[in-house]
Please model this.
Amino acid sequence: MSTEAQKATRRARVGIIGTGFAGLGMAIRLRQTGVDDFILMEKGDRIGGTWRDNDYPGCACDVPSNLYSYSFAPNPEWTTTFAHQPEILDYTNRVVAEYDLLRSTHLNTFVQDARWDADAQRWQVETSQGPYEFDVLVSATGPLSAPSIPNIPGLADFEGPVFHSAEWDHSVDLKGKRVAVIGTGASAIQFVPEIQKEVSELKLFQRTPPWLLPRPEYATSKLRRSLFRRFPILQKLGREYLYWGHEAYVIGFTRFSGVMKLPQLLAQRHLRSQIKDPALREKVTPNFTIGCKRILLSSNYYPALAQPNVEVIASGVSAIGKGSVTSSSGEEREVDAIVLGTGFHVTDIPIAEHVRGAAGTTLAEEWKGSMQAYRGATVSGFPNFFFVLGPNTGLGHSSMIFMVEASVQYVIDALQQMDQHGIAQVDVRPERYRRWNQGIQRRMPDTIWVKGGCASWYLDANGRNTTLWPDFTFRYRALTKRFDLESYTTLPRREAAEPATEPTPATA
Ligand code: N01
Model:
């Protein structure tokens, strides 16, 4: 692309940041409702978001695939009940092709700065590919897009390979190597059983043991697939069954924590049946109520830990040497490579540093360490800016795609109402914004995430849970079905605000 072309401002009615399930879901619904004037901006060189980035060995979904897929794009062909990453990415690519989204996608386009231009009533967006202008800006960057690299003294000086699970370095052959794994979250419990089979020694640094339930994964039969293909209603019914089964967790998570005794008993039984060594059993037994951190599903993690080439060091990490890792309890282990299963920047999402509202301040400055958004979607003082999967829309129990679809519906209805009423600008009223977030936070002390006795990435630096939705997901869907215009201040299009530049068609 020539420098001149890079400088030309590209315009569209809607700009979408990110092409994971959230961004693609937004784009598809726009297309379905007749809005073709949008551009998807993707920082990577391929679409796919977190399921593109996370391709570590064993990467798979821990929500059943029949639920973890778009409601409008059921996939009768899932080969297993819990699809693995390549199959999920294939599904995404098929949906992208079906809705012809590549022609609206600008790859390698990193959003550096987005600011609300009050005179033009538009978002001016600077990217690594030049400037853009949008009437409405949708952030769909998701909570799991920025790997968290721990600030451990000596990490930069380690002489062997070091990589994060979300940036797996497939050029490194771990076969026969002594490997340290730091972290025991949802990602680590999936890749540990895979790499355990090939490494000579695996030193697992476990700061907090997670609760695990068995993973009911099995290959789907040809008969089932053909029935789903021929009678879509059967797949729909299966999806409903899964949905309500998962929704039952909300009762224990947010209302009656005593209910969690049952899954905790099942998890204890799972642990006892898979780990016979009492010392190891003790090391990996959590000391908090199940559900306080994400409940993990695995039937091969504990057996991997029980193998002779694995040592669980039940401690955080205090230092890293040129060829060793030292635990906070002072145990030093010599290793050839380090894999970080240390999670993501979830409560300090990077996009918050790049988006500036009407007052010129960034989202991060507005939030002061605690993210918040009205109905998980809008922030006061940031007109025409929407989140898909914004603050407090995360789940610990069910499919995030359900929340994506609910969030997207809110934006779609906003656009339709803006058209209908000749509105150019909407900004959530400060008191609605404040009251909504106070309401969310008032519910938190009763939840398992606060009462359960654990520290987790659900809580931010101020100790607030700004990540999870503290209610049934159907309640969220009901709240986002209609854009509540009365909660917003609105402005019509100002004459002087007509664009100086001609609209530029999107190109892939
Ligand atoms: O990350 P995590 P993840 N020193 O944050 C430890 C989703 N997901 O990548 O518990 C030592 O859960 C940390 O210890 P502690 C899912 O939503 C979904 O595994 O904080 N240890 C923890 O053990 C999931 O929840 C699927 O004490 C350090 C681990 O690193 C989310 O992604 C699959 C440390 C981080 O665990 C994140 O999972 C996989 C330090 N300095 C992931 N810093 C699905 O199937 C952190 N840790 C849908």
Observations:
- Residues 400-421 form the longest helix (22 residues).
- The longest strand covers residues 130-139.
- The domain at 14-47+101-143+345-429+467-492 is CATH 3.50.50.60 (FAD/NAD(P)-binding domain).
- The chain has a mean pLDDT of 95.
